[in-house]
Amino acid sequence: MLIEMEKETQYKELIENILLKVQKPGRYVGGEWNSVQKARAKVDVAFAFPDLYDIGMSHLGSQILYHEVNKRTDAVLERVYAPWSDMEAEMRAANIPLFTLESWRAVKDFAFFGITLQYELTYTNILNMLDLAEIPLLSSERDLGHPFVIAGGPVAFNAEPLADFLDFLVLGDGEEVIHEILDLYLEMKKEGITDRSFMLERFAEIPGVYVPSLYTVEYNQDGTIKEVKPKKESLPKRIKRRVIQDLDEVDFPTSPIMPSIDIVHDRVMVELFRGCTRGCRYCHAGAVYRPVRERSPKKVKEIARELIKNTGSNELSLVSLSSSDYSCVADVSRELSEDLAKEYISLAFPSLRVDSFSMQLLEEAQRVRTTGLTLAPEAGTQRLRDVINKGVSEEDYEQALLSAFRSGRDQLKLYFMTALPTETKEDLRGIADMARNAISIYRRVMKEQGVHRRPLKITVSTSSFIPKAHTTFQWEPQFSISELAERQQFLKEELRGISNVRFLYNDPEISFMEAVFSRGDRRLGKVLLRAWELGAKFDGWSEHFRYDIWQQAFAETDIDPKFHANRRRDLDEILPWDHLDPGIRKSFLKRDYAKAMEAALVPDCRFDRCAVCGMCYDFPVTVDLKMKDAEELESRRKKNPKIGGKVTESSSGV
Q1: Per-residue pLDDT tens for 624-650?
Q2: Which of 166, 229, 537, 614 is the most exposed place for a label (fewest CB within 10 A)?
């Protein structure tokens, strides 16, 4: 113990010596308001967000897990973020291993190294952090002297490219399963178990835990997957995700860590609900976070008031995948905004849908200060919006703009996706038409109000479509890099000449790499390793991304990236992620895919009929369904008593 303390003191002295040599030392010092300083515990976790502190500190999921572990008396969780290139260079020069913010302890000395998977292009950062931590990159090369490297988050539902590097993954909500993992570890430690392989098998017994090394993958001659199977019969063939059924029954962090420096979203957040049943066919989050589970209005208001009291923040954000779909959003927002306005605290809604846009919500959000507005029509024509099941009409869009402009807004951001399945030039031209229409409506509002304001500023922001696992479009190919660039150039020309319009778009090569890893299998692990060896890291950052490195890595490993990104999958093909079960059934996705090709809409099951996606069969929770579905619901319950749901005269939000 004395030797360990001397080593830690030495680390701290070295760290102090380099902090003034780097940009933003506040990223690495820790000691923030509401951060937890604890003595040694029986089990410790170093939890990583594999990107900059500035990005990771805005992540609500990290705050939730931080609270869950640190409320225990026998456990501690400390944070670590990817060091920027200047800090990494100083650390390597001084032989300082990756360390946590709370205690500046070396990550390699913790029992667990946890990683949240939010974005595929952080994969090289994960390898870089493992190397900085002096932890063997390959799970097969670790022993009991190393932490268990575990991961969770939305991308865990296809993290097969990381299979060689992770000891195990957690699928779904983490509030309950994290305690089961820590309890089992302490139990095995008490029993004196020292066989790491046996410990991994025990972890695999926990529902929602996936140990990649315990599963084998066989391939057909054409490179497609023949079979994914467990090495032992006792292991499940499909790993089902964990689902928190009642959000009121789990803790929510009301004393979140307040950042030392400016971060991307510097505000406190209340989670209104999880899940979304809108059914946008491209949306990965909408697929893997079902079903909808709402936090009660009483609980939301309690949390909000505690957050303000414990942080002193001047902005409160009501978050979810679609905040205006919260059934009690009008009452909750009105009451909170009245209270917050007295203290000059603003209320924010970061995820308003165009079709559920409300003048009342807009007014509540600008009681303290008026901000710009972001709307996400996603596609430029009604036909393509129907293909992706967006459910937004031209009338919805125009009414949203009227509400915004009448309330005084003069800045507008429109978010679209390009290169969507079945997209044509007419669909792209429709994006420019929507920008022109916004200007026309803005001028009409000024005329009817008899006022003269500065010209409307519009930002048209686009991203290229990425086929994602477990979505309706998981079988669709991504357009080639050249085709992505051609579409961007076409839209740029269409927008040219429209006054006060700024056009933002992403790098086609970065989008291509995201598609490769979002659709890839575990054979990509050797590409990932080679690219990291060649210097790849922070691939989501344009100033760091180097496509030539990736081209070299693919060539040296004899892997064709187009096989993963640009190939249409057969509907009956075994996909790399089929053994990872978010609850939504493949049979439903096939039916929905056929409807997409017909531009047929599937209504939200919260407001209309059940779409039979399978979620409520395997994950019974309380959801509201319209009275007209009562007979059908009861019929299904007789066949499967596990089905949840209650029937009310009007569904939530109607």
Answers
A1: 443 334 454 455 445 444 444 443 332
A2: 229
